[in-house]
């Protein structure tokens, strides 16, 4: 009886985990828009590669924030990347925001970059 109970709990836990997995990653379009913005803040020949996502906040209204660890030609850097869906945040000038955490520098994406998604 205990093994059946354990198996049932394990199956339920696995199904809950699998159900939440699709929301765990940003879409490729969002990631490319964020990478493009980060690269615009660096010199033209500087590489920028995402090493890891250290944290994610995802809202029911489409809001998405992630903390990225990046490797660049200037060394490792931390960024907070955010997407504010226009339907939920109509007064924002741009739906994208990039903040370099270790320096506090904020870059708001230009409308052209947002349209290129």
Question: How far is it from the N-terminal to the C-terminal residue, by CA?
Answer: 54 Å
User: Could you name the ranges where pLDDT drops below 50 across 5 or more consecutive residues?
Assistant: 17-23, 110-117
- Rg over C-alpha atoms, rounded to the nearest angstrom: 18 Å
Mean pLDDT: 79
β-strand percent reads: 25-35%
Q: What is the oligomeric state here? A: single chain
Order of helices and strands: HHEEEEEH
From the spread of the alpha carbons, the general shape counts as: extended
Largest sheet: 5 strands, antiparallel
Summarize the structure.
With 117 residues, the protein is of the alpha+beta class.
Map the helices and strands.
Layout: H1 2-20, H2 28-40, E1 48-58, E2 64-72, E3 75-83, E4 96-100, E5 106-108, H3 111-115
Antiparallel strand pairs: 1-2, 2-3, 3-4, 4-5
Write a structural description:
- It contains 3 helices and 5 strands, in the order ααβββββα.
- Strand 1 (about 50-60) and strand 2 (about 65-70) form a beta hairpin.
- Strands 1-2-3-4-5 form a 5-stranded antiparallel sheet, with helices on one face.
- It is an alpha+beta fold.
- The radius of gyration is 18 Å and the shape is extended.
């Amino acid at each position: 009886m205990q093994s059946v109970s354990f198996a049932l709990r394990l199956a339920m836990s696995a199904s809950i985990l699998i159900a939440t997995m699709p929301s765990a990653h940003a879409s490729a379009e969002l990631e490319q828009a964020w990478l493009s913005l980060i690269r615009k803040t660096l010199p033209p020949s500087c590489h920028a590669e995402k090493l890891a996502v250290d944290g994610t906040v995802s809202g029911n209204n489409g809001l998405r924030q992630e903390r990225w660890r990046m490797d660049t030609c200037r060394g490792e850097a931390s960024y907070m990347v955010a997407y504010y869906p226009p339907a939920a945040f109509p007064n924002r000038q741009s739906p994208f925001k990039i903040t370099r955490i270790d320096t506090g520098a904020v870059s708001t994406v230009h409308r052209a970059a947002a349209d290129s998604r």
